[in-house]
Structure formats: C-alpha cells, structure tokens
Amino acid sequence: MEPDAEALGYRLVRVRLLGNRRKTLQIMAERISDGDFNSGDCTKLARRANEALEPIEYDSLEVSSPGIDRPLMRIEDFTRFIGHMAKLETTAMLDGQKRFKGEIVSVDGDVISLKTEQGEPKIKFSALHDARLVLTDKLIEEDLRRAKAVERDFPPPLAGEVSPQATEGAADASPLSHRAARTDSSPARGGANKTKRKNT
Fold first, then answer.
1. d(Cα 24, Cα 15) in Å, to the nearest integer?
2. What is the DSSP string of 3-24?
3. What would the DSSP string read from start to end of 27-75?
4. Strand pairing partners for 130?
5. pLDDT digit string, tens, across residues 129-177
6. Which CATH number fits domain 75-134: 3.40.140.10, 3.40.190.80, 3.40.50.300, 2.30.30.180?
7. Other CB atoms closer than 10 Å to residue 153's CB: what's the count?
8. What is the per-residue pLDDT across 28-74, written as a single tens digit (0 to 9) for each?
9. Which of 4, 16, 85, 109 is most deeply packed, by most CB within 10 A?
C-alpha cells in the first residue's frame, strides 16, 4: 500500500486492522509536499486503497489525517517534532516505569532523548510500544502556521473561478469503487473518510 500512496503524493502515517467479527482497516496519511490532508485527499486515497488491498479481508475502511496530536510511528517523526511534548510507552520497564511524558530533546541514531519532570531518559526507538504528540499551545500554533502556508500556496478562488482543488474534489465525489461507497465524512482538520464494502 505504501508505494501506491506515495505514487499519489501521500505518506502513510499508520495502518491498522481493528475489530474481531467486523474488521475496520484504518489508514492515517498526509501529503508528502506539505503535511496537509483534506477530504478530497481522503477520498482519493480511499479509492486507491480499496483497489490495492482487494485481497485483505475487512468490512469497512477508514481514511483520515493523523491529527495534530498525531502518533509517532517512525524515528523521523521524532526528529521532525524535536522541541514538542510527547507521550511514550515502552514494551518493558525502563528505570521502573513504562510511560514517559516530556519534551523531545534530541534524536541520536535510534535513541530518543526526552526532558521529563523526573530527568532526561534516553529511550531506544525499538523499545517503544506506543508514542504520540501531546496537544499543546506550541503545537497548535505551529499547525496553524503550516495551514496558513498551505493557504498561501493555494489561495481560495475569486468569485466565478474554480480552483484546481475544487475540480479535483468534484471528481473525487464519485463512488470509491464498484464495491465501496462513501458513507461518512468528518469535518475535523484534515478530514476523515469512512467506506463500507458492499455485499456481493
């Protein structure tokens, strides 16, 4: 799926198969160019995912942006968000604890340095079970600056004009595939798209 996403200009953040009897395939992604991800992106990637993941058994597909307090899935994510707060959970005890919350200070190879209230632990990326950013004013401000930069690059059209994004979105409003139809779209930042497979 990753090559398919990259061919469309997207970076996969996380892919998970959730549920037991009814399985939901959850895909988080962002644009490689600017880190944004809108409802049109959701629909485009959902269509490609349904085609690329045909052999995988699942009942519904959920495509969304990672959100501001995003999961940190790659070592590069930690480098990208140095200076921001994060919550980390390790698979085994480290200095008597598994959960850490602090500022990402540095990344050296696969070792992440945090600044916490208790000290400055160094945690190997391979030792992590889960990690995500903490929603802070600093993170929100940075996200707003990024969003404004995207808007400057793609300003809204004047009255009577149609932007390339709007044209693309109109094309994406069609059914996702012969066996999947768009059933829900979230208005949250980045957007989310949920599709269900039709019974055949």
1. 11
2. HHHHHTTEEEEEEEEE-SSS-E
3. EEEEETTTS---HHHHHHHHHHHHHHTTTS--SEEEEE---TT-B--SH
4. 89
5. 999 999 999 999 998 988 888 777 666 555 545 444 443 443 333 333 2
6. 2.30.30.180
7. 10
8. 999 998 888 999 999 999 999 988 887 788 889 999 999 999 999 99
9. 85
Q: Angle 176-181-185 (CA atoms, 0-180°, nearest 5)?
A: 90
Least Cα distance to 111 among 101, 119, 121 occurs for 121
Every domain of the chain with CATH number 2.30.30.180 lies at 75-134
DSSP string, 113-143: EEE-SS---EEEGGGEEEEEE---HHHHHHH
